[in-house]
Amino acid sequence: MVGLGRSRAVAFVAPALVLIGVFLVFPAFWTLYIGVTNYRLTGAAAKAPEVVGLDNYRGVLSDPAFYRSLWLTLIYVLVSAAVGQNVLGFGLAWALRGARRAIRRLIESLVLLAWVLPSSVVAFLWIAMLDRDAGTVNMLLGQSPGTAWLVQYPMTALVVFNIWRGTAFSMMLYSAALSSVPPSHLETARVVGSSTMQTLRDVVLPHIRRHALTNTLLITLWTFNDFTPFLLTAGGPDHRSEVAPVYIYNTAIVGGDMGYSGAVSLVVLLINLLLALVYLRAARAGRSS
Amino acid sequence: MVTVEGLTKEFPGGVRALDGLNLSIMDGEFFALLGPSGCGKTTLLRTIAGLESPTSGAVRIGDRDVTPLAPGARNVAMVFQDYALFPHMTVRENIAYPLKIKRQPRGEREARAGEIGGQLGLAGLMPRRPAELSGGQQQRVALARAVACRPSVFLFDEPLSNLDARLRLEARTFLKRLQRELAVTTVFVTHDQAEALALADRIAVMDAGQIRQIGTAREVFRRPSTTFVANFIGSTPMNLLSGEVRGDGIAVAGGTVPRPDGLSDGEPVTVGIRPEYLPVLTSAQHGALSGEVSIVEHLGTSSLVTVEIDGELVAGTVAEGDEPDTGTRVWLRPVPGRVLIYRVGDGTLVS
C-alpha cells in the first residue's frame, strides 16, 4: 500500500476539517436555524429564543429597507465591478501589453498595492483623503469649506473606491488572458487593416471570452459580499449606502435582531447562488459553440 | 515589383537583423528567402509586410514607397506559419474576413469567399470551423483568405513547415500551381533548401542579415557563390575539402582536379564537390581520390558512401545495388565541370 494509510491520513486532514466545521459549516447551519427564530442579541429572546417559523422571511420580503439595500447592492456590483473593474482592468492590461518593462512593472505594482493592503488600512486612507475639512481631495480642489464626500455622495464614493481597490485582479487576469492570444492572429488583423476596435471585437474578445466570464463571476461575487463599505460609510447617511452585507450587519449587530438578519443572509446567499448559476450556464454555452 | 533599398533593422539591444539589404523582386515572381534560423529572413518578410519598421532604408511596392505605411495600407496578404485562422469563425467567415474589414457588403463578400473556396477545393467545408479541418485544409483556408482581398503581393512565412512530410509535397505542388495561376508576386520564407529549390523562380540565400547570393534555383545549386551557400544548398552537404594549387592541377585528398585561371602556384584553396557528382568506383583511376569505405547510407535510388581519405571524410554516391562493403578501397572521380574552387580567405567562388 502506498501512502500514509487511512488513519494517519485522517489525522493529517482532521485539524483543517475541524476548523472548516467550526467556522464555516456550523455557522451556516446556525444561520439557517436562527432565521426561523426570534433570537435577539440581548434581552429575553436572547436567553430563550422561540421558533417563529417563516415569520422572518415574510418580514424580509415585505420590508422596503431590504429592497433598498438590494437595489444599492445591484448598483454597487454593476457599476463598480461588472463594468468598472472589468473595463478598467482590461484597458490597463491592453495598454500595458506593448509598454516598456519598467513602466509596466511600475504601474502593475501601484495597482497591486491597492489590492494587497488590508481593508482597514485602505478605509482609513480613504476617509482621510475624502474628509471635509482636512481631506486631500478637497485640498487639491482648493475648496474651503470642502465637500463632505462620504456624506453627500456616499454611493459614488463607494463605487470609485471599489474600482480603485479591485481593478488589480482584473488587470492581472486579463494580462494573462491576452498573452494567450496568438501574436499571428493579431498580426493577421493588422495586415488586413483592422482598426483597434475591430481587432478587439473580431480577434481578442472571442479569444478571452471565457476568461472574461470567470473574471466577471469572481469580482461580482466578491463585490456582492464586500463588507468594506461599512468601514467607509457604515451604511449611512440615512441608509443611503447600506448595501446588503452592511444591512445584515446593521440589523444583526447594531439592531440586535439576529433572527431577522439570519433570514436576510439566506436570501442573499440564494441570490449569490443564482448569479453563479447564470455565469456557469453562460460559460458552458461558450464552450459548446 | 517589390524593391528593398538599403534596408537595415536593428532591434533594441543592438541585434542587427538586417544589414543594408538591397533586393528587387519582379512582377509575378515566386521568390524565396532562404537561410538558417536567425539569418534575418523572417524579419525581412515582416518588414515588407509592415509588421516591423526598418531602422533605415526603404520598401517599395510597385512605384509606391510603402515604408511609412501601416500594414493594412500596403495591399499585401500574409500567411503565417500557424495559419492564424480565427477559431470562432467558420471557413467562410475566415475567408471573407479581409473583405469585411474593407466594408464590402455581406452578399458580395460571401459570394467571393464561395468562389475562392471552390477554387481551392474547400467548397464542402465552408460552414465548418478551423478545428474541424486537417492541417492541409487549414493551410488552404489561410491561402484562400490571402487570395480573397486581391493583394498585389503575397507574403508566406514558412508556408509548409506545419504539414507532415507527405502532405508537404502535395501542398508544395499545389502552392506552385496556385501561384502560377494567380501570377501575383510572392515572397516566402523557408529554412528548407529543398522547398526553396522546388518552388521558387529565384532564391535569396541569407546569412547574418545579409544576402549571400541571389539567383535561380539552378544557379544557386550549380554555382554557389560562397562556401556558406555551398554548404547550405543541397540535401546532402557538399564536400568542402582543402586543396593546394600545384602545377597544372589542384591537389586534393590524394587526387588531382583541374585548375581554373586566376590562381597562383602553391595557393591553398577549398575544393567543393557535391556527393552526387562524386561517383564511387571500385577500380583505380588516374587523378581520382582514393580511400576506404567508412559508412554506407541508403537514400533510395542511390546510396551515400562516406569514404575516409587520410583522416578526412568525403561523401560520394553510388547507384542503388552497387554499394561497396565497408572497409574496401574505392576511388572517387569528380564529374568534369562540377568541381567548384573557393578561395580560402573569404570563401568566394573562383570563376
Low-confidence stretches of chain B: none
Relative helix content of chain B: 10-25%
What coarse outline of chain B follows from CA principal-axis ratios?
elongated
Please tally the helical runs of chain B, counting DSSP H or I stretches of 4 or more residues: 8
> H/E element string of chain B?
EEEHEEEHHHEHEHEEHHEEEEEEEEEE
Number of helices of chain A: 14
End-to-end Cα distance of chain A: 45 Å
Element order of chain A: H for helix, E for strand? HHHHHHHHHHHHHH
Q: How many beta-strand runs of chain B?
A: 20
Class per helix and strand makeup of chain A: mainly alpha
Q: The CATH topology of the largest domain in chain B, please?
A: Rossmann fold
* Proportion of residues in β-strands of chain A: under 5%
SSE-based structural type of chain B: alpha+beta
What is the count of distinct domains of chain B?
2
What spatial form of chain A do the alpha-carbon principal axes imply? globular
Biggest interface found: A-B, 17 and 23 residues
How many structural domains does the protein architecture of chain A include?
1
CATH topology of chain A: MetI-like fold
InterPro entries (chain B): AAA+_ATPase, ABC_transporter-like_ATP-bd, ABC_transporter-like_CS, ABC_transpr_MalK/UgpC-like, Mo/tungstate-bd_C_term_dom, NA-bd_OB-fold, P-loop_NTPase, Transp-assoc_OB_typ2
GO molecular function (chain B): ABC-type transporter activity; ATP binding; ATP hydrolysis activity
Keywords (chain B): ATP-binding, Cell membrane, Membrane, Nucleotide-binding, Translocase, Transport
Organism (chain B): Rugosimonospora africana
List the helices and strands and how they pair.
The complex is a heterodimer of chains A (289) and B (351).
Chain A: H1 6-34, H2 44-47, H3 55-61, H4 64-96, H5 101-116, H6 119-130, H7 136-141, H8 149-152, H9 154-179, H10 183-192, H11 196-224, H12 228-233, H13 244-254, H14 258-288
Helix pairs in contact in A: 1-14, 3-14, 4-9, 4-11, 5-9, 9-11, 10-11, 11-14, 13-14
Chain B: E1 2-11, E2 15-25, E3 30-34, H1 41-49, E4 56-61, E5 64-65, E6 76-79, H2 91-101, H3 106-119, H4 135-148, E7 153-157, H5 165-182, E8 185-190, H6 193-199, E9 202-207, E10 210-216, H7 217-222, H8 227-232, E11 239-246, E12 249-252, E13 255-258, E14 268-273, E15 280-281, E16 289-298, E17 302-309, E18 312-319, E19 329-332, E20 340-343
Parallel strand pairs in B: 3-8, 3-9, 6-7, 7-8
Antiparallel strand pairs in B: 1-2, 1-4, 4-5, 9-10, 11-12, 11-14, 12-13, 14-20, 15-19, 16-17, 16-19, 17-18
Helix pairs in contact in B: 2-3, 2-4, 3-4
